[in-house]
Design a protein that fits this description.
Strand content: 5-15%
Helix content: 25-40%
Number of strands: 3
Number of domains: 1
Number of helices: 4
CATH topology: Cytochrome C3
Oligomer: single chain
Largest sheet: 3 strands, antiparallel
CATH architecture: Alpha-Beta Complex
Shape: globular
CATH superfamily: Cytochrome C3
CATH class: Alpha Beta
Radius of gyration: 15 Å
Structural class: mainly alpha
Strand order of the largest sheet: 1-2-3
Length: about 120
């Protein structure tokens, strides 16, 4: 299973196409369902500068219309054979970042949680 996951991540990271069209208002995404803090995802940057194909993350897309939101399939708890959101994102995101680093290139974080998860600021009353 782990080998299959690794192969899928590697294939997804290596499938580079031209800049994909990001819908207006979706250039930066905020995932606020995490207990560790909001995750900010630079959607446009990954598509344009990094050349990541939409289907790398939107792996169930058929190429027609807008891809579905990740959380439409990936819930906080596993749903049948669909992994929970945290496991899916950690596998996809950290896996691609690690593959990129292992290839000798700069990439996003792979180990320090708070580089993606921004903990809420405690406000003093």
């Amino acid at each position: 299973m782990r080998s299959l996951l690794t192969i899928l991540v590697l294939l997804g990271c290596s499938s580079v196409m031209g800049a994909e069209q990001i819908p207006p208002g979706k250039e930066i995404l905020y995932f606020d369902r995490s207990k560790m803090g909001v995750v900010t995802f630079m959607h446009q940057m990954h598509s344009t500068l990094q050349g990541v194909n939409c289907t790398t993350c939107h792996h169930t897309s058929r190429g027609e219309g807008q891809p579905e939101d990740c959380h439409n399939c990936h819930q906080p708890q596993p749903q049948g054979d669909v992994p929970e959101s945290a496991a899916a994102f950690h596998t996809r995101c950290r896996g691609c970042h690690q593959y990129t680093v292992d290839s000798g290139k700069k990439a996003g974080p792979v180990k320090k949680c708070t580089l993606c998860h921004i903990p809420p600021v405690n406000k003093k009353k």
